[in-house]
Design brief:
- The complex is a heterodimer of chains A (494) and B (515).
- Chain A has 494 residues and is mainly α.
- In chain A, strands 1-2 form a two-stranded antiparallel sheet.
- Chain A has 19 helices and 2 strands.
- In chain A, helix 4 packs parallel to helix 10, helix 6 runs antiparallel to helix 8 and helix 15 runs parallel beside helix 18.
- By secondary structure, chain B is mainly α.
- In chain B, a hairpin with a 2-residue loop joins strand 1 and strand 2.
- In chain B, helix 8 packs antiparallel against helix 11 and helix 14 packs antiparallel against helix 16.
- Classes of the chains: A mainly alpha (494), B mainly alpha (515).
- Chain A: It catalyses: a quinone + NADH + 5 H(+)(in) = a quinol + NAD(+) + 4 H(+)(out).
- Chain A: Belongs to the complex I subunit 2 family.
Amino acid sequence: MESAMHVVSFSDIWRSMGPEVIVIGGAFLIMLIELLLPQNKRQWVPWLAVIDVIVAAILIISRFDEGILVYSNANFVVDGFSNIFKLVILLGTFLVILLAIAEQRKKALPYEYSYLLLFASGGAMIITSGIDLVLLYVGLELLSIATYILVALNRRDGRSAEGGLKYLIVGSIASATILYGLSFLYGVAGSTNLGQIAVALQNDWANDSAILFVSFALILAGVAVKISVVPFHMWTPDVYEGAPTPVTAYLAVVSKAAVIAFMLRVFIFAFGDKFQDWWLLMAWLSVITMVVGNFGALAQHNVKRILAYSSIGQVGYLIMPFAAIGQTQNVSNMWQALSSISFYLFVYAVMTIGAFAVLSKVSQERGSDQVEAFAGLYKRNPWLATMMAIFLLSLAGLPLTGGFFGKFMIFLVAFNAGQYWLGIILFATSAVAFYYYFGILKAIFVLEPTGDDEKIKSGGLLNTIVGLCALGTLYLGLVPGPFLHVLNQVHWFG
Amino acid sequence: MEDVLMLIVVIPLLAGLLVLAMPARSHGIIRAVAFIGALIPACFSLSAYLAFDKRITDLQYPFTTTWMNIDNAFNMLTLHINLSFGVDGISMPLVMLVGVVSTLTMIRSFKVTERVKSHYFWMLFLTMGLYGVFAASDIFTFFFFLESTLVASYLLINTWGGELRHYAATKFLIYRGLASVVLLAGLIGLAYVYAVKAQAASSTIMIPNAPDFLTLSISQLLTEARLIQIPAATQNVLFLVFLLAVLIEEAFVPFHTWLPDTHEQSDTGTNMMIGGALMKIGLYVMLRFAVSMLPLGLAHYAMWLAVLGLISILYGAIVAVASKDWRRLIAFSSISHMGLVLLAIGSMQEIGIQGAVFMLVSSGLLTSLLFFTVGAQADRTGTFAIENLGGLSKSLPVISGVMLVAALGFVGLPGLSGFISEFSLFVGGFAAFPTLSALATLSMIFAAFYLLWAMQRTTFGPVNTSLPEMADAEAIEYVPMVVLVILVVLIGVFPGVLGDVVHGTAQAIAARIGG
């Protein structure tokens, strides 16, 4: 690596960081516009954010086949991996902003969310492209700090404030822990560049496992908090319950996708074959996360908490391929693992946001998040009921939905790596999950409506969001072929 | 004729969607659409039966369309997933069984007055799932339809059942959900093992059809099972997985507790579908995958099958004696009868395999008939409790008479379908396990005891004066009863109508397992 500073021109920045520039620059612009607009015109502000996200996504897609680009002294890389993850992040952000707009009419969330979500997503996108510890950490903090505020956004709700505080404290400790772990990597390599760290771990420090262990353990503990891997999940149900529903969906989907990208970059890219020492640990974390998440959900009666626990369980599925990556030497298996994670993230994004969208409407109208609030939803609003059924069946992993194929792909990865037991536990815990997902289904279709017999009127926007999510869920379940094919062609790492 | 199976599966779904599009209050039209939506595929399955080539033992009426390909699914192998149908001598009778049972259930469901639209939608959905399960010739297609039946029957039990229906439906869901998970593990393992073996074999010996991809096609797997011998240890593991799945799916002791609850809490139409068709899936899986493709595994566990079968036979029969509710009695009696099938499969005899298919069909018809008549009397008396009934033959001579036919069919009266089924099963059983089979014959005595005793207390004996005034069978109720009785007698008197179809395939399977 040359030591001389090499001058980065604006056109270089645009070519490499175009999407990030659009998202973060757009966020600043929208912040200003929001400030300057009169109060009664501000309802247009979130739509600007939607446009911003769409533009960024189009830019990424248009450059999808350009190959690997490395910029700025190899701090920032645009490769297939980062493009795929950025698309997940933007898809999630897009849906969440729409959901927030749809929910806003009644609850009157402050419009700050539109640019805060953009800042958070900008941070998330930086994570996916960063191959430098500083850049990765800055992205992570941008994401975290924005989401701390977002969780507490509903100022009039005590639970939101409590959730915000909880998330702030737990999240900052986690960030600090990650930073501590990263500092060891810097100490080992004398550089913050992941490539140089990888080289140092191969050569100079190949036999010093103690320092690597400390570093790995600290980073793992930190990211485990951020994506609520058991036993670092305790905050999740409280925060999810307290946060405004669109923010909950954001935490569940976008924030997790970004942190998983972080894990892949650091663990796979920097640690390289040192990661093999820890595959069993990842496997067990995945197992206890699946078990605790799914069994924890059994005891819940609040749908938001059920979804919170279920999202813990889903993280268990998501981190399972890490074990395969750690154990296998075979590049094709590693690629398969990466494409299975990405596929599942897309499925997870649409089905989870869809479920939260229906939940937000129902709980608004019925004034409760409890399962009983869903009683007789089919009579109150057949459209929402049917869409919710699709999301729940997908979350449960029934065929013809994306959820089945997502799990199936992960199962294949485990199978391929010879980890049959992990695959079996995956499906066994999914069978446990039937119980609570079908419990909600039962409420929707079977139970008679309680209380008044009023219909739930859902606006066109909300109907569109859940329709889009359902379309995505079914598309990925009915014809996953083309999309999997794209994922298979991706050149993952630079 | 090539697309007949695809049409059979798709038509109920289309009818279901049509039902959804109807206004909720027009019950008459909804009923008519649902009935026609079940009748047409039933007629198609009849025509498929008539055109069935009995000399061919492979899957007939193949229909395959590519669904999706997954690159790099296993060690760079591509996974081909197809929407694929095909029937052989084992599945053809079961497809017809679904046709008969579903059509008659639609008639019975004319009595449903609550939430008619969604009732018929889920009924048609369940019908589609059942057709799909038995007609599938691709593992993924099969599994998809299996899960569809799960969703549909869960909601059917949950909405139109008795007081404890939520409990029963949840139990149903958990047991069957667990079974399908285990089954999926077995199915994927099977496909994987054959893919790896076929790949290895094709590079050493000349084997035609050995794929360089991972296939889920059932006919492909059946072909490979003939050509390639999987090591015994692997077969044993896979067989054990399938066995576990089947034990749960088919409610064998000790995994049986969900079935009586389900039957007790479901309404009559749902019971006819579940008892008549859905409960045949487990043993069908056993025959289709475990027996046909894992002969060494079968040989290894044959004794276990017989013992587990015997336990279910005796346990089911003994508990049935103590049952106070007609629906529980039928449930336990079907557990007992399915145990007999397991015993016969364990015998690894050709006649046992043939008897197994006979028993699946016969018990499907008889169970539906019994549930229908028991339900018909309960519509009038308002109770299923045996001790509250009495003297029904006075006021309901037709229904009681048909009920008696069904009961006698279960007992195994010659001339009815139950006899020829049990006869073949026992012939197979005695050839391999004389002692166990001798013990199993006790179940016939028990069956005669509990069924006839229950009949005696229900239809004959003193009239229970607390029962309301009743009218005998209405015109529309004659249809299911007459059709089922005719079929039961037809199979009993001319077993050839079924046997000719089954024979070739049963022979092929028996040759594979060395029976």
